[in-house]
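User: Can you predict the 3D structure of Dermatopontin? Sequence below.
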Amino acid sequence: MNPALLALVLSLLAPVAPQSQDHYDMDWVNAYRQGFNFQCPHGEALVAIRSYFSEAEGSDRLWSFECQPTPEGLGEPSDCWWDDINRAGLEWTSTCTRNGLVAGVQSMYFESVLDREWQFYCCYYKRRCPYSCMKTNDIPLYYKEEAELVIPTYGYFIRGAQTTFSGVLRDRQWKYILCRMTDFDCEFENL
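Assistant: Sure. Here are the predicted structure tokens for Dermatopontin:
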């Protein structure tokens, strides 16, 4: 038998290697079932969010975040605060109050519901107002999948999120609220 043909046949019969464990190489901000507090450096906003689900680890996710400096036109944030807490096991929508942008996240895991409570760290930029807001599609598209949001266009910012929670699958899907911010001062507050 031709040695090249034999090598090809043997390679086709070899067992398939298990899925890559690339998720161990990420800079996760938490361990499974542990709380975390992540804040962007002053003058930066959240631009990327990644998570990896594990049913074996309490139906929890590892989380990773990335920040980017805001455009010069926005100026420096004049105030930052932790917004309302969003309870574990519930569906919720949360948008930074006072036209704020998300610049951090903190979360605590609750074993009793196999879910987390969430809180956004928001920063206010003078009297800038959001416009051209939109919600992303579900992230992840299906429960228990890896999830990733990278803001698709410079000039958009995360203002909040809407989530659904599956009590059966013990996981969340997220729709992030993305907005542009005016280049001029405005007198009103969009909620």
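Residues 7 and 13 are 10 Å apart (CA to CA). The longest strand covers residues 44-54.
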